[in-house]
Amino acid sequence: STGHSRPCLRPAPRGPGPGPGPGFPNPRFQCPESLLDCAAKAVAEKWAFERVEERFERIPEPVQRRIVYWSFPRNEREICMYSSFQCRGAGEDGPAAGAGAPVGSGAVPGGVSGAVGNAVAGGSGEGLPFRRGIRLLESGCVENVLQVGFHLSGTVTEPASGSEPETTHKVAISFDRCKITSVTCGCGNRDIFYCAHVVALSLYRIRKPDQVKLRLPISETLFQMNRDQLQKFVQYLITAHHTEVLPTAQKLADEILSSNSEINQVHGAPDPTAGASIDDDNCWHLDEEQVREQVKQFLSQGGYYGSGKQLNSMFAKVREMLRMRDSNGARMLTLITEQFMADPRLSLWRQQGTGMTDKCRQLWDELGALWVCIVLNPHCKSEEKSGWLRQLKKWSDMDVCPLEDGNYGSELPNITNALPQSNLNQDSLARPRRTVFTRAMEACDLHWQDSHLQRIISSDFYMSPSYQREGESLLFNQQGLPLWLDHVPTACARVDALRSHGYPREALRLAVAIINTLRLQQQRQLDIYKHQKKELLQRGVTTTTNLEGWVGHPLDPIGCLFETLTETCRLEDDNAMDTGGNNDSTLHLVPDGGESYLALALEVALMGMGQQRVMPEGLYAQDKVCRNEEQIVARLQEMELDEVLVQTLRKQAVLLLEAGGPFSGLGEVIHRESVPMHTFAKYLFTALLPHDADLAYKIGLRAMRLPVLESTAPSGDVGHPHHGISIVPSRYPRWFTLGHLESQQCELASTMLTAAKGDMLRLRTVLEAIQKNIHSSSLIFKLAQDAFKIATPAENPPDITLLNVALELGLQVMRMTLSTLNWRRREMVRWLVTCATEVGLRALVSILQSWYTLFTPTEATSIVAATVMSHNTILRLSLDYPQREELASCARTLALQCAMKDPQNCALSALTLCEKDHIAFETAYQIVIDAASTGMTYSQLFTIARYMEHRGYPLRAFKLASLAMTHLNLAYNQDTHPAINDVLWACALSHSLGKNELAAIIPLVVKSVHCATVLSDILRRCTMTAPGLAGIPGRRNSGKLMSTDKAPLRQLLDATISAYINTTHSRLTHISPRHYGEFIEFLSKARETFLLAQDGHIQFAQFIDNLKQIYKGKKKLMMLVRERFG
């Protein structure tokens, strides 16, 4: 800014000559300020200097000096705000001294001392411009500081570092009415915030005002010069900077000498050091272009590289500006919003019908909430509000503007109306389109003129007269304390606006009035419920609930009240620490002389979390409910519960249990679609347990329900949690977060189980609640595992009560998953056996005896009985002989039952389990024989046959192998079939048993096996040794080799030759040249077999001749045949 135009000729000011005037008073002597300084401070802060000049014909120079002196910002916090993202210090709230505090309010002249300045930037990193600026200042890098009127200049030297040489930057700052209006620095900084050099120069002026040369605006100095002095001044100026200013100087000279020039039409001339004009906006310098650029850049990164964090920091900066009552807050938010609306991803998401990411949605939510804050500024002008409304409407009307609830239209009530519009059609098309800006637009209709509201926020002692306290009142409760009967989120938005705009005390008063109103409503709803209780309990369900929940609400009403109240306590704690003693400030107590703000904060959080409310539509809105719940619980867990807070907790818990209908989600009867209370109840349970265990369990057990699954869940397993979505009937909105809600239900149950360890009665009630309310086998299994872990600590003996609960839960899982597919089933079965083993012998006997309700026959034999009978289990239980026998008897009974039910899969396990008992073993063997002809495959029979041979029953093995052979069919080309080894083994077994067995099995082989190579292999093995080498007692063995000319080998030889002939013809039908070599080798093997017969060579020669005749077309192949076989 070049400043306003000033007259070139006027009388010189009268009064004392130039002088520095008094500097900052020395705080040690606490000198009262002069009347001149008091007046100059007030004028410097509120009036443009041009207005002062217009108002008074002559202003004495000392007065001018003091106004100019006091016009520079006095508060380091403001410099910090414009030079760093994170600059909020502890306890920083409300307008800083000099930035909104009334004049004469006791603000320390000169603003914050150096120590406070350092503290303000405390938590921020050393690399931030504000911290670097302080270091430059303290290192003596600021020099040549000169203030000419409303213009400050100086040089700041950046010390050499590493490879960077020392550099000196020229810095210039213009200011007006205690705000910096423009900055320039030679470092060429391109950022939203001031560079460290501007910070260093500003802090120099704030901390060392006495050391700054102060001059009046340059025009004042020029007034005092005569013509010769002026000419000399101009010529010296041009000489000093001739290369830069000579062309400009000549151009100006030409225009001044030309009578018609524009410059001669204007009275006076501009002065850049004379402050801003009356018409200029009085606001801090903010580089709008840089704000746009940075937001655009962060958005283009799509949430990566910490861009979401950066954007949240920008939102925090807007809030900080609002708190300092700085008009740039709204200006900066407008710039941010413009870039958000220009984000190219919006139209892309809309075209593709995909939702934006959660992080992105949260940023839009914060944007909407900030606009509500801005338009609810209690001191904004109506034209400002109209301008914002126009802007918001323009954004809201754009197609790409995101909707408030993420996906769907909403039936939520208007912000200014506590009840939903009754004439709204339920059809989604009839719902109004609500965007992220709708609430801010609705908030434009709210005002602060209500006299009752004004009295609430302006006094701690506003109460109704005692004689008016009887009967009903809309303005005060029975104790005479004021109420504010507004739609709760709207009322809380007012509180947030007051806090955000630097009115913490006013926000606090309104928050207390809202809480008193909520208490009254809670009491009234409890009375109403008591009248309807009988009817509601008979129906077992209520249709009454809140359409709009306070938790997960876009305006976060509960979070706002909680923060307002706890922030006050934090500030008081900080103040108490600063003064080093006890602080008896009234801030800890509500004006009625009773409760602490901390207790109120706890109470309102409990009311909000316990509110019965319908689950909102859409994934985002439902996810937000869960997230907001967790945030509030996290804040509650940070509270250290003293006696007062425990009383509050207990009182509110009892109220929530007693209340029903719309107020409490923990009442006896709730709406089927109500948001579950598991997360909240887990907090209440944990917090109440040390103080009132009965109440804690009442809350926990009441909250275990999940009614949305009750009327539709089948009696079996509802599968993995995320499959639960499909259970909810289509007439209700889908519960996208059902998986999360079920896991929270499981967490609550686990917490109660852990706490009830050792108390059989409590464990039983928790167990019943789990069995009644949890419908997912995976979650019950998790609970069983948790209980088992807690019941069996490494060093101490196990807790048998909790072990029994773990076992019972495990048994329930077994029953639930018995007939459904579950990929963890094997793990579950193994775990159950482990658990039963820990419980003891009776538990194992019980699961063995009732196996058919818990396990499949395969599981019962291969996993359960096998594990129970293992050496490890016997050792673990330290069983004596009768106990071992009892267990073994149960296992054998189970094995035989399973073998009967599923012989294919259980026969072998049954035989193994019955080995030590002859009768049981014989029974199992008979079951196998009976099942062999119908239900069993050759591979199962071969496996059992080999087992029998291994156990020393070769004849039984032979019988089973023969039965297996009848089920087998090996085609001519299956020379790699997995059963080949079994066939070779069966033949070897028969051969070893003797000629009769071999004669019995060869017809079966001939019938089942058509593969020439397998047959020739069997034939070769049978001719190599004499049969009957197994040495069965009572049998004679001749010891002679068997002849291929006689039965039974003759039959096998003929079958083998026949197989070779058939296979040869089959192979030649589709043979390719690359297989010729392999085919010739195959014929060589065939010849070996042919030659085992007496006339084998003649047969083979005829066979070759036939081939030559039939396949004479395959000349190359036949030539190879001739070469090898003639």
From TrEMBL:
It comes from the Eukaryota. Residues 1-12 have a biased composition (Low complexity). GO terms for cellular component: Cul2-RING ubiquitin ligase complex. Residues 940-1117 form the ZSWIM4-8 C-terminal domain. Residues 1-26 are annotated as: Disordered. Keywords: Metal-binding, Zinc, Zinc-finger. GO terms for molecular function: zinc ion binding. Pfam families: ZSWIM4-8_C. Residues 13-25 have a biased composition (Pro residues). PANTHER family: ZINC FINGER SWIM DOMAIN CONTAINING PROTEIN 4, 5, 6, ZINC FINGER SWIM DOMAIN-CONTAINING PROTEIN 5. This is Zinc finger, SWIM-type containing 5.
